[in-house]
Sequence to fold (257 residues):
Amino acid sequence: MNIAVIGAGNMGGALIHGWAKSGKVTLTIADKNEQLLTKFKETYKNITTTTDNAAAVKGADIVVVVVKPWLMPTVLEEIKPVLDMEKQIIVSDAANFTTEKLAEVLGKGQFCYVIPNIAAEYGASMSFIAKGKDTSDEALAQVKALYDLCGDTLVVTENLVGPGMMMASCGIAYVMRYIRAQMEGGCEMGFYPDQAKQIALQTMQGAVSLLKETGWHPEAAIDKVTTPGGVTIKGLNELDHAGFNSAVIRSLKAGLK
Fold:
């Protein structure tokens, strides 16, 4: 599968790393930053790099555009003359730049709107995929197979990509903030920062592994470690008193306003 990626910044770069590490696709990447392209070329010898967006998309099966939303119209107009709308699948990885917006610029075609997260570099992304009205199931399957190389994927209706982004793309930052808070608490209780980080990360990893392996609801797992009158319930109640659940839900909904 020949993939063209336009944009090699934080998100584009994470996808490029993930796909390149998989060894299962042929990559051409385009970016205006020549130094950035040189680093990718030095790391992955089989990647083709260019500063010419139009040149990058020629011959690609899937064209992934990963630039800032306000740059999307300009980039799409730049590549429009050389796109083969009968054969190529165009993917928007720009927040809120939906398949409808792709169609406004490019006309009729096979479009997907996808939001991954930066863990794609390590094969651990949670990606949300929605197809446009003229996109075939076969094209959707190709896009899903591509993003499966970078982690878990969920095919959703387009109206759920935004909420998915808040839970997984923005949400990854919220998880980082919790880890940081746990580290700070550990330091206050006497651990060195590196020790507190190790504890916080392994605890998070343990919680994730436990839920994945058992299929338990989080509350079922909580019950396993919460004894009457014990220290765990005291800590959980402090989170409730501080509005922890409400704060998490409000943070997820904030970006949808």
Remarks:
- The longest strand covers residues 125-131.
- The chain has twelve helices and eight strands.
